[in-house]
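Entry 14. Two folds queued back to back today. First construct below, sequence then structure tokens.
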Amino acid sequence: MSEIKVAYYSELDDQAQWEEMMGALLPELRVYPLTQLGGDEQMDFAVVWNPPPGALAGLPGLRAIFNMGAGVDALVGDATLPKGVPIIRLVDERLTQRMKEYAVLHVLRYHRLAPLYEDMQRKKQWRAVQTPVAQERVVGVLGLGAIGAACAEALHTLGFRVLGWSRTAKQLPNMSCYSGMAQLPEFIRQLDIALFVLPLTPHTDGLLNYELIGQMKRGVCLINIGRGRVQREGDILQGLADGTIGGVTLDVFEHEPLADDSPLWDHPAVTITPHVAGITDPQSAARTIVDGMREILAGRVPSHLVDRTRGY
């Protein structure tokens, strides 16, 4: 097989490590930094994470663009992206496992009143508070793609009553599924804990706003591990101030890194993590991406194609 040329871009990842991992699986593969390409080189594939707008415009001969993470909004939102080139989102078992772990951890924190007991410890208070069992707690998962569905199944296994919502209709085992904006109010008002695993699209941008918060149960707890611009942080703070929201865990933000002067940092009911719910594992992800390359090289339709119209 002749040389397989790959354009690479990520400000967060080590190119040499990815080159080694992918090269071990596909020896014909050669990696070229995207920033050093003049625009007339013929590349077979691009492996990227959040490339600058226009960075891929000079590579019309690409056979596919592989995204190195779960969110594809930066690629889909780039109007200069070569038309007709498939975008492949990363669906990787280790990434999904990490997202599941994060979701379960923080759902259980709210379910078992961990923030309350942590506050009582600081105040040196000794007092037991009765909590319902998991079967009496309603957890809603917004976003039922591969990661959202895996989180929902893990929560069901723990005994929670799980509801799911997605923009388009889906049927998944062990949960009642809702879809579309028309069914969102009925879904959202039932929840004790809401887990957001939504992609960023024109339909989800700003979905978690004060209008939606106002339809929720008083004391609801929110967790967002999807995309930061799905939420409006000022509206979340307003919901905390009026008591509608009982607690919030945010792994993603409207602008990252979160500004030093954001009031979220010091709010006692807010837990912040720096976009770490699903850090990509290079070894596992490289295998997934190379498998996708092999599918294309063999003339097959690759798995996990992004629908540019839908945005995911």
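Second construct, same run, same settings:
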Amino acid sequence: MKEQEILSDESEMPLRKLLLGQQQQQQQQQILLVQQQQQQQQQQQILLVQQQQQQQQQQQKQQQQPRLLLMLVLLLLML
């Protein structure tokens, strides 16, 4: 009986190592996924900021256009 128990313990060791290795791989993959999600969130935030900047620039252009028209009309009137 004792010899069989020792043999079964030894035969289980590679299996345990395999299982441990798989668990570690899964944990690493989960960590990678979390890092990718964080990167995506950062990229989305950057995109949002860029969109806000573009909107601000467009608003500034729209505000400048009427002023330019007014200046042109005034110049023409002075002639």
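Quick look at the second one. The CA atoms of residues 72 and 78 lie 10 Å apart. The longest helix spans residues 2-78.
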